[in-house]
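C-alpha coordinates for chain A. Residues wanted.
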Protein backbone atom coordinates (compact mmCIF):
# COMPACT_ATOMS: atom_id res chain seq x y z
CA UNK A 1 0.00 0.00 0.00
CA UNK A 2 1.31 3.46 -0.92
CA UNK A 3 1.45 6.63 1.14
CA UNK A 4 -2.08 7.66 2.20
CA UNK A 5 -3.00 11.03 0.73
CA UNK A 6 -5.46 13.04 2.81
CA UNK A 7 -7.13 16.21 1.52
CA UNK A 8 -7.32 19.15 3.92
CA UNK A 9 -9.21 22.43 3.59
CA UNK A 10 -8.06 23.10 0.02
CA UNK A 11 -6.56 19.89 -1.32
CA UNK A 12 -3.34 18.11 -0.39
CA UNK A 13 0.01 19.48 0.76
CA UNK A 14 3.20 17.66 1.62
CA UNK A 15 6.95 17.94 2.04
CA UNK A 16 8.83 17.88 -1.23
CA UNK A 17 10.74 14.60 -1.75
CA UNK A 18 9.46 13.12 1.52
CA UNK A 19 5.83 12.55 0.58
CA UNK A 20 5.24 15.19 -2.08
CA UNK A 21 6.73 13.18 -4.92
CA UNK A 22 6.00 12.80 -8.62
CA UNK A 23 4.39 9.43 -7.92
CA UNK A 24 2.06 10.83 -5.27
CA UNK A 25 1.19 13.89 -7.35
CA UNK A 26 0.35 11.48 -10.19
CA UNK A 27 -1.93 9.53 -7.86
CA UNK A 28 -3.72 12.75 -6.82
CA UNK A 29 -4.21 13.71 -10.46
CA UNK A 30 -5.61 10.24 -11.18
CA UNK A 31 -8.15 10.64 -8.38
CA UNK A 32 -9.27 14.05 -9.65
CA UNK A 33 -9.43 12.82 -13.24
CA UNK A 34 -11.59 9.86 -12.29
CA UNK A 35 -13.85 12.18 -10.24
CA UNK A 36 -14.44 14.33 -13.33
CA UNK A 37 -14.90 11.38 -15.67
CA UNK A 38 -17.47 9.80 -13.35
CA UNK A 39 -19.41 13.07 -13.59
CA UNK A 40 -19.61 12.63 -17.35
CA UNK A 41 -16.94 15.22 -18.13
CA UNK A 42 -14.62 13.13 -20.29
CA UNK A 43 -13.05 15.15 -23.15
CA UNK A 44 -13.70 18.37 -21.19
CA UNK A 45 -10.98 20.93 -20.49
CA UNK A 46 -9.16 21.41 -17.18
CA UNK A 47 -6.91 24.37 -16.34
CA UNK A 48 -3.54 23.51 -14.79
CA UNK A 49 -1.29 26.12 -13.18
CA UNK A 50 1.51 26.40 -10.66
CA UNK A 51 3.47 28.75 -8.40
CA UNK A 52 7.18 29.56 -8.03
CA UNK A 53 8.08 26.80 -5.60
CA UNK A 54 10.73 24.19 -6.34
CA UNK A 55 9.81 21.99 -9.34
CA UNK A 56 6.40 23.66 -9.74
CA UNK A 57 6.49 23.49 -13.54
CA UNK A 58 7.54 19.85 -13.58
CA UNK A 59 4.77 18.80 -11.18
CA UNK A 60 2.25 20.68 -13.35
CA UNK A 61 3.46 18.78 -16.43
CA UNK A 62 2.99 15.49 -14.58
CA UNK A 63 -0.58 16.44 -13.63
CA UNK A 64 -1.30 17.37 -17.25
CA UNK A 65 -0.03 13.99 -18.48
CA UNK A 66 -2.36 12.15 -16.08
CA UNK A 67 -5.43 14.23 -16.91
CA UNK A 68 -5.07 13.64 -20.65
CA UNK A 69 -4.29 9.99 -19.98
CA UNK A 70 -7.80 9.75 -18.54
CA UNK A 71 -9.54 11.33 -21.51
CA UNK A 72 -9.53 14.97 -20.39
CA UNK A 73 -7.89 17.96 -22.07
CA UNK A 74 -5.64 20.56 -20.49
CA UNK A 75 -5.05 24.29 -20.70
CA UNK A 76 -1.60 24.73 -19.09
CA UNK A 77 -0.51 28.20 -17.97
CA UNK A 78 2.62 29.49 -19.68
CA UNK A 79 4.24 30.52 -16.41
CA UNK A 80 3.74 30.76 -12.66
CA UNK A 81 0.26 32.24 -12.24
CA UNK A 82 -1.68 33.70 -9.29
CA UNK A 83 -4.39 31.41 -7.95
CA UNK A 84 -7.19 33.96 -8.65
CA UNK A 85 -6.05 34.21 -12.28
CA UNK A 86 -6.11 30.42 -12.62
CA UNK A 87 -9.60 30.37 -11.11
CA UNK A 88 -10.86 33.09 -13.46
CA UNK A 89 -9.37 31.15 -16.39
CA UNK A 90 -11.66 28.22 -15.55
CA UNK A 91 -14.66 30.45 -16.29
CA UNK A 92 -13.16 32.11 -19.37
CA UNK A 93 -12.09 28.79 -20.88
CA UNK A 94 -15.37 27.09 -19.94
CA UNK A 95 -13.33 24.41 -18.20
CA UNK A 96 -14.79 21.89 -15.75
CA UNK A 97 -12.20 22.58 -13.07
CA UNK A 98 -8.56 23.28 -12.31
CA UNK A 99 -5.50 21.85 -10.64
CA UNK A 100 -3.12 24.32 -9.07
CA UNK A 101 0.34 23.19 -7.96
CA UNK A 102 0.92 25.41 -4.95
CA UNK A 103 1.39 25.20 -1.21
CA UNK A 104 0.21 28.80 -0.87
CA UNK A 105 1.58 30.14 2.43
CA UNK A 106 3.30 26.94 3.66
CA UNK A 107 7.06 26.75 4.42
CA UNK A 108 9.50 26.46 1.48
CA UNK A 109 9.92 22.72 1.99
CA UNK A 110 6.30 22.09 0.97
CA UNK A 111 4.25 21.97 -2.19
CA UNK A 112 0.57 21.32 -2.78
CA UNK A 113 -2.22 20.10 -5.04
CA UNK A 114 -5.29 22.39 -5.08
CA UNK A 115 -8.44 21.52 -6.99
CA UNK A 116 -11.16 23.85 -8.24
CA UNK A 117 -14.67 23.36 -9.65
CA UNK A 118 -16.31 24.72 -12.82
CA UNK A 119 -16.96 28.06 -11.08
CA UNK A 120 -13.25 28.49 -10.31
CA UNK A 121 -14.03 28.08 -6.62
CA UNK A 122 -13.11 25.55 -3.97
CA UNK A 123 -14.76 22.14 -4.21
CA UNK A 124 -17.14 21.42 -1.35
CA UNK A 125 -16.18 19.00 1.46
CA UNK A 126 -18.19 16.10 0.01
CA UNK A 127 -16.50 16.52 -3.36
CA UNK A 128 -13.07 16.55 -1.75
CA UNK A 129 -13.89 13.32 0.07
CA UNK A 130 -14.95 11.71 -3.21
CA UNK A 131 -11.71 12.76 -4.93
CA UNK A 132 -9.69 11.43 -2.01
CA UNK A 133 -11.52 8.09 -2.17
CA UNK A 134 -10.67 7.74 -5.88
CA UNK A 135 -6.90 8.20 -5.42
CA UNK A 136 -5.26 4.83 -6.24
CA UNK A 137 -3.11 3.23 -3.57
CA UNK A 138 -0.16 2.81 -5.93
CA UNK A 139 1.20 4.67 -8.94
CA UNK A 140 0.87 1.64 -11.25
CA UNK A 141 -2.88 2.37 -11.42
CA UNK A 142 -2.21 5.81 -12.96
CA UNK A 143 -2.95 6.43 -16.66
CA UNK A 144 -0.67 8.86 -18.53
CA UNK A 145 0.11 10.19 -21.99
CA UNK A 146 3.64 11.66 -22.38
CA UNK A 147 3.56 15.45 -22.45
CA UNK A 148 5.17 15.90 -25.87
CA UNK A 149 2.79 13.45 -27.50
CA UNK A 150 -0.26 15.04 -25.84
CA UNK A 151 0.81 18.53 -26.85
CA UNK A 152 1.30 17.46 -30.48
CA UNK A 153 -2.21 15.99 -30.51
CA UNK A 154 -3.69 19.21 -29.11
CA UNK A 155 -4.70 17.55 -25.86
CA UNK A 156 -2.49 19.96 -23.89
CA UNK A 157 -2.55 23.63 -24.91
CA UNK A 158 -0.34 26.25 -23.32
CA UNK A 159 -1.95 29.67 -22.82
CA UNK A 160 -1.34 33.08 -21.30
CA UNK A 161 -4.07 33.69 -18.70
CA UNK A 162 -3.16 37.32 -17.99
CA UNK A 163 -4.98 39.31 -20.72
CA UNK A 164 -8.47 37.98 -19.97
CA UNK A 165 -8.06 38.48 -16.23
CA UNK A 166 -6.76 42.04 -16.68
CA UNK A 167 -9.72 42.99 -18.90
CA UNK A 168 -12.05 41.53 -16.28
CA UNK A 169 -10.38 43.53 -13.48
CA UNK A 170 -10.93 46.73 -15.47
CA UNK A 171 -14.69 46.13 -15.26
CA UNK A 172 -14.52 45.93 -11.45
CA UNK A 173 -12.10 48.75 -10.53
CA UNK A 174 -11.45 52.19 -11.99
CA UNK A 175 -7.72 51.72 -12.52
CA UNK A 176 -7.32 55.10 -14.20
CA UNK A 177 -8.48 56.92 -11.08
CA UNK A 178 -5.91 55.06 -8.97
CA UNK A 179 -3.18 55.77 -11.54
CA UNK A 180 -3.95 59.51 -11.42
CA UNK A 181 -4.11 59.70 -7.61
CA UNK A 182 -0.38 60.19 -7.08
CA UNK A 183 -0.05 57.48 -4.45
CA UNK A 184 3.20 55.80 -3.52
CA UNK A 185 2.49 52.09 -3.23
CA UNK A 186 4.87 49.40 -1.98
CA UNK A 187 4.18 45.80 -3.01
CA UNK A 188 5.62 42.74 -1.28
CA UNK A 189 4.72 39.62 -3.31
CA UNK A 190 6.76 37.46 -0.91
CA UNK A 191 8.85 35.93 -3.73
CA UNK A 192 5.64 34.57 -5.21
CA UNK A 193 3.14 34.79 -8.03
CA UNK A 194 1.94 38.32 -7.24
CA UNK A 195 5.18 39.84 -8.54
CA UNK A 196 4.65 42.40 -11.29
CA UNK A 197 0.86 42.43 -11.28
CA UNK A 198 0.17 45.72 -9.47
CA UNK A 199 3.05 47.36 -11.30
CA UNK A 200 1.55 46.35 -14.64
CA UNK A 201 -2.02 47.27 -13.73
CA UNK A 202 -1.16 50.71 -12.35
CA UNK A 203 1.64 51.84 -14.68
CA UNK A 204 1.44 55.05 -16.70
CA UNK A 205 0.12 57.62 -14.24
CA UNK A 206 1.14 59.79 -11.29
CA UNK A 207 0.96 56.85 -8.88
CA UNK A 208 4.28 55.13 -8.21
CA UNK A 209 4.52 51.41 -7.53
CA UNK A 210 7.61 49.81 -6.00
CA UNK A 211 8.18 46.10 -5.36
CA UNK A 212 10.40 44.09 -3.03
CA UNK A 213 10.87 40.29 -2.86
CA UNK A 214 9.70 40.13 -6.48
CA UNK A 215 11.99 37.52 -8.03
CA UNK A 216 11.76 33.74 -7.87
CA UNK A 217 13.46 32.39 -4.76
CA UNK A 218 11.90 29.14 -3.44
CA UNK A 219 13.60 29.44 -0.03
CA UNK A 220 11.76 32.72 0.71
CA UNK A 221 14.53 34.81 2.34
CA UNK A 222 13.60 37.30 5.10
CA UNK A 223 10.54 35.25 6.07
CA UNK A 224 9.76 31.82 7.49
CA UNK A 225 7.03 31.30 4.90
CA UNK A 226 5.18 33.43 2.33
CA UNK A 227 2.24 34.10 4.64
CA UNK A 228 1.23 37.79 4.95
CA UNK A 229 1.27 38.02 8.75
CA UNK A 230 4.02 38.98 11.24
CA UNK A 231 6.90 38.26 11.42
CA UNK A 232 7.04 37.32 7.72
CA UNK A 233 6.05 40.87 6.72
CA UNK A 234 8.44 42.72 9.02
CA UNK A 235 10.94 43.48 6.23
CA UNK A 236 8.11 44.88 4.14
CA UNK A 237 6.84 47.07 6.97
CA UNK A 238 10.32 48.52 7.45
CA UNK A 239 10.61 49.15 3.73
CA UNK A 240 7.32 51.07 3.80
CA UNK A 241 9.06 53.78 5.78
CA UNK A 242 12.17 53.64 3.58
CA UNK A 243 10.05 54.26 0.48
CA UNK A 244 7.82 56.80 2.27
CA UNK A 245 4.91 54.76 0.91
CA UNK A 246 1.25 55.52 1.50
CA UNK A 247 0.42 51.83 1.81
CA UNK A 248 2.01 48.39 1.77
CA UNK A 249 0.16 45.60 -0.06
CA UNK A 250 1.39 42.06 0.57
CA UNK A 251 0.33 39.00 -1.40
CA UNK A 252 1.16 35.47 -0.27
CA UNK A 253 2.98 32.85 -2.33
CA UNK A 254 0.14 32.21 -4.77
CA UNK A 255 -1.39 35.72 -4.49
CA UNK A 256 -4.82 34.67 -3.28
CA UNK A 257 -4.37 36.34 0.12
CA UNK A 258 -3.74 39.96 1.02
CA UNK A 259 -1.93 41.65 3.88
CA UNK A 260 -1.90 45.42 4.41
CA UNK A 261 0.51 47.77 6.12
CA UNK A 262 -0.36 51.41 6.79
CA UNK A 263 1.60 54.55 5.99
CA UNK A 264 3.31 54.36 9.40
CA UNK A 265 4.72 50.89 8.76
CA UNK A 266 2.15 49.25 11.03
CA UNK A 267 0.38 46.02 10.12
CA UNK A 268 -3.41 46.10 9.69
CA UNK A 269 -4.42 42.60 10.65
CA UNK A 270 -6.53 40.52 8.32
CA UNK A 271 -9.72 40.77 10.39
CA UNK A 272 -9.54 44.54 10.18
CA UNK A 273 -8.85 44.37 6.44
CA UNK A 274 -11.99 42.26 6.04
CA UNK A 275 -13.94 44.88 7.95
CA UNK A 276 -12.52 47.61 5.71
CA UNK A 277 -13.38 45.73 2.52
CA UNK A 278 -16.96 45.06 3.63
CA UNK A 279 -17.37 48.71 4.70
CA UNK A 280 -15.95 49.83 1.33
CA UNK A 281 -18.48 47.78 -0.63
CA UNK A 282 -21.39 48.88 1.54
CA UNK A 283 -20.58 52.55 2.03
CA UNK A 284 -18.37 53.64 -0.87
CA UNK A 285 -19.82 51.49 -3.66
CA UNK A 286 -23.33 51.30 -2.23
CA UNK A 287 -23.57 47.55 -2.76
CA UNK A 288 -25.95 45.35 -0.82
CA UNK A 289 -26.01 41.62 -0.34
CA UNK A 290 -25.03 38.86 2.08
CA UNK A 291 -21.67 38.68 3.80
CA UNK A 292 -20.11 35.25 4.27
CA UNK A 293 -17.54 34.84 7.03
CA UNK A 294 -15.78 31.89 8.62
CA UNK A 295 -16.22 31.53 12.35
CA UNK A 296 -12.56 32.52 12.80
CA UNK A 297 -12.96 35.99 11.37
CA UNK A 298 -14.22 39.27 12.71
CA UNK A 299 -17.51 40.05 14.44
CA UNK A 300 -17.19 43.57 12.99
CA UNK A 301 -18.96 42.02 10.00
CA UNK A 302 -21.97 41.17 12.14
CA UNK A 303 -22.12 44.79 13.30
CA UNK A 304 -21.85 46.05 9.72
CA UNK A 305 -24.61 43.64 8.72
CA UNK A 306 -26.85 45.15 11.37
CA UNK A 307 -25.98 48.73 10.38
CA UNK A 308 -26.64 48.19 6.68
CA UNK A 309 -29.40 45.60 7.03
CA UNK A 310 -27.63 42.80 5.16
CA UNK A 311 -27.49 39.15 6.28
CA UNK A 312 -24.27 37.60 7.58
CA UNK A 313 -23.64 33.88 7.21
CA UNK A 314 -20.99 32.07 9.28
CA UNK A 315 -19.27 28.92 8.00
CA UNK A 316 -16.49 26.55 8.96
CA UNK A 317 -12.89 27.51 8.21
CA UNK A 318 -11.77 27.29 4.60
CA UNK A 319 -13.04 28.31 1.19
CA UNK A 320 -14.47 24.85 0.66
CA UNK A 321 -17.23 26.21 2.95
CA UNK A 322 -17.13 29.87 1.93
CA UNK A 323 -17.31 29.43 -1.86
CA UNK A 324 -20.42 27.20 -1.92
CA UNK A 325 -22.18 29.56 0.51
CA UNK A 326 -21.31 32.56 -1.64
CA UNK A 327 -22.77 30.86 -4.69
CA UNK A 328 -25.88 29.78 -2.78
CA UNK A 329 -26.61 33.25 -1.39
CA UNK A 330 -25.17 35.45 -4.18
CA UNK A 331 -23.02 37.00 -1.48
CA UNK A 332 -21.47 40.43 -1.87
CA UNK A 333 -18.25 39.33 -0.17
CA UNK A 334 -16.83 36.24 1.49
CA UNK A 335 -13.67 35.81 3.47
CA UNK A 336 -11.64 34.14 6.14
CA UNK A 337 -9.19 34.92 8.92
CA UNK A 338 -6.14 33.97 6.86
CA UNK A 339 -6.49 37.06 4.65
CA UNK A 340 -8.46 35.54 1.79
CA UNK A 341 -11.36 37.59 0.39
CA UNK A 342 -13.73 36.90 -2.51
CA UNK A 343 -16.17 39.26 -4.20
CA UNK A 344 -19.42 39.16 -6.13
CA UNK A 345 -18.83 39.79 -9.84
CA UNK A 346 -15.60 37.82 -9.65
CA UNK A 347 -15.10 34.07 -9.19
CA UNK A 348 -15.95 32.69 -5.72
CA UNK A 349 -12.26 32.44 -4.87
CA UNK A 350 -9.81 34.40 -2.77
CA UNK A 351 -8.23 37.17 -4.81
CA UNK A 352 -5.35 39.09 -3.25
CA UNK A 353 -4.91 41.25 -6.34
CA UNK A 354 -8.51 42.45 -6.50
CA UNK A 355 -8.65 42.91 -2.73
CA UNK A 356 -5.54 45.10 -2.91
CA UNK A 357 -7.04 47.20 -5.70
CA UNK A 358 -10.21 47.67 -3.65
CA UNK A 359 -8.13 48.95 -0.71
CA UNK A 360 -6.43 51.42 -3.06
CA UNK A 361 -9.76 52.53 -4.51
CA UNK A 362 -11.09 53.05 -0.99
CA UNK A 363 -8.09 55.26 -0.17
CA UNK A 364 -8.67 57.35 -3.31
CA UNK A 365 -12.47 57.51 -2.95
CA UNK A 366 -12.35 58.71 0.66
CA UNK A 367 -9.03 60.58 0.38
CA UNK A 368 -7.71 58.84 3.48
CA UNK A 369 -4.60 56.90 4.33
CA UNK A 370 -4.92 53.36 5.74
CA UNK A 371 -4.68 54.35 9.40
CA UNK A 372 -7.42 56.94 8.81
CA UNK A 373 -9.60 54.34 7.10
CA UNK A 374 -9.24 52.13 10.15
CA UNK A 375 -10.28 55.01 12.43
CA UNK A 376 -13.34 55.50 10.23
CA UNK A 377 -14.27 51.81 10.47
CA UNK A 378 -13.88 51.86 14.26
CA UNK A 379 -16.11 54.93 14.46
CA UNK A 380 -18.86 52.73 13.01
CA UNK A 381 -18.34 49.39 14.79
CA UNK A 382 -15.92 50.10 17.67
CA UNK A 383 -12.29 49.04 17.98
CA UNK A 384 -11.58 45.30 17.76
CA UNK A 385 -8.33 43.54 18.68
CA UNK A 386 -7.10 40.20 17.39
CA UNK A 387 -4.18 37.82 17.76
CA UNK A 388 -3.35 34.20 17.07
CA UNK A 389 -0.85 31.57 18.22
CA UNK A 390 0.06 28.51 16.14
CA UNK A 391 1.68 25.69 18.10
CA UNK A 392 2.90 22.27 16.89
CA UNK A 393 1.36 19.52 18.97
CA UNK A 394 2.33 15.97 19.80
CA UNK A 395 0.24 13.14 21.07
CA UNK A 396 -3.27 12.03 20.35
CA UNK A 397 -5.60 14.57 18.70
CA UNK A 398 -8.68 12.94 20.21
CA UNK A 399 -7.23 13.31 23.71
CA UNK A 400 -6.71 17.01 23.03
CA UNK A 401 -10.33 17.31 21.91
CA UNK A 402 -11.60 15.56 25.06
CA UNK A 403 -9.55 17.95 27.20
CA UNK A 404 -11.00 21.00 25.42
CA UNK A 405 -14.57 19.77 25.73
CA UNK A 406 -14.18 18.90 29.41
CA UNK A 407 -12.61 22.26 30.34
CA UNK A 408 -15.98 24.06 30.58
CA UNK A 409 -14.45 27.45 31.51
CA UNK A 410 -16.74 30.04 33.08
CA UNK A 411 -14.43 32.91 32.17
CA UNK A 412 -11.63 33.37 29.62
CA UNK A 413 -9.28 36.31 29.93
CA UNK A 414 -11.46 37.59 32.73
CA UNK A 415 -14.51 37.73 30.44
CA UNK A 416 -17.63 35.62 30.93
CA UNK A 417 -18.10 32.73 28.50
CA UNK A 418 -21.54 33.03 26.88
CA UNK A 419 -21.52 29.87 24.77
CA UNK A 420 -19.55 27.25 22.86
CA UNK A 421 -19.82 26.71 19.08
CA UNK A 422 -18.39 23.49 17.62
CA UNK A 423 -19.07 24.03 13.90
CA UNK A 424 -15.35 23.87 13.16
CA UNK A 425 -13.08 23.66 16.17
CA UNK A 426 -14.13 25.04 19.55
CA UNK A 427 -15.27 28.67 19.67
CA UNK A 428 -16.02 30.22 23.03
CA UNK A 429 -18.18 33.35 22.71
CA UNK A 430 -17.32 36.05 25.27
CA UNK A 431 -19.46 38.65 27.00
CA UNK A 432 -17.95 41.64 25.15
CA UNK A 433 -18.92 40.22 21.75
CA UNK A 434 -15.47 38.74 21.26
CA UNK A 435 -14.41 35.10 21.07
CA UNK A 436 -11.69 32.51 21.57
CA UNK A 437 -11.28 29.76 18.96
CA UNK A 438 -9.22 26.58 19.29
CA UNK A 439 -8.94 24.41 16.20
CA UNK A 440 -6.59 21.98 14.52
CA UNK A 441 -5.05 23.00 11.19
CA UNK A 442 -6.42 21.15 8.17
CA UNK A 443 -3.05 21.24 6.39
CA UNK A 444 -0.35 20.98 9.09
CA UNK A 445 0.14 19.18 12.46
CA UNK A 446 -0.45 22.33 14.50
CA UNK A 447 -3.14 23.65 16.82
CA UNK A 448 -4.32 27.22 16.34
CA UNK A 449 -5.55 29.48 19.12
CA UNK A 450 -7.22 32.70 17.98
CA UNK A 451 -9.12 35.48 19.66
CA UNK A 452 -10.92 38.73 18.99
CA UNK A 453 -12.04 41.17 21.67
CA UNK A 454 -13.07 44.78 22.10
CA UNK A 455 -10.74 45.02 25.11
CA UNK A 456 -7.12 45.39 23.99
CA UNK A 457 -5.74 44.69 27.47
CA UNK A 458 -7.35 41.22 27.49
CA UNK A 459 -5.88 39.78 24.26
CA UNK A 460 -2.82 38.03 25.67
CA UNK A 461 -4.67 36.65 28.69
CA UNK A 462 -7.38 35.23 26.42
CA UNK A 463 -4.72 33.48 24.32
CA UNK A 464 -2.93 32.22 27.43
CA UNK A 465 -6.18 30.77 28.74
CA UNK A 466 -6.80 29.23 25.32
CA UNK A 467 -3.45 27.44 25.37
CA UNK A 468 -4.21 26.17 28.87
CA UNK A 469 -7.62 24.87 27.78
CA UNK A 470 -5.95 23.10 24.84
CA UNK A 471 -3.41 21.51 27.17
CA UNK A 472 -0.46 23.36 25.63
CA UNK A 473 0.51 25.33 28.76
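Reply:
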Amino acid sequence: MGYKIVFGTDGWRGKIAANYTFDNVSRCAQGFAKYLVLQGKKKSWVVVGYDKRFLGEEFAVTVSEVLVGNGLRVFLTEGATPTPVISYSVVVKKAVGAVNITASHNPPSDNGFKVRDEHGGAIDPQGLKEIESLIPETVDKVEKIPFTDAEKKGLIVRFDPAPAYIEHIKTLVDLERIKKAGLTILIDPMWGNGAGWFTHLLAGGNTKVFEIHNTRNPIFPEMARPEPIPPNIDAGLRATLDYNADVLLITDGDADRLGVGDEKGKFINQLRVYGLLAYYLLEVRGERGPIVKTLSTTNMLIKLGELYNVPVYETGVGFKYVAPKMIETNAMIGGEESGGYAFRGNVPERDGILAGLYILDMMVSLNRKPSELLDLLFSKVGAHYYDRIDTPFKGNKQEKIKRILSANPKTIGGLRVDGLVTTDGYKFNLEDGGWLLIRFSGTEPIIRVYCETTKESRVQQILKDGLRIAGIN
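The chain has three domains: 11-164, 180-381, 385-469. The radius of gyration is 22 Å.
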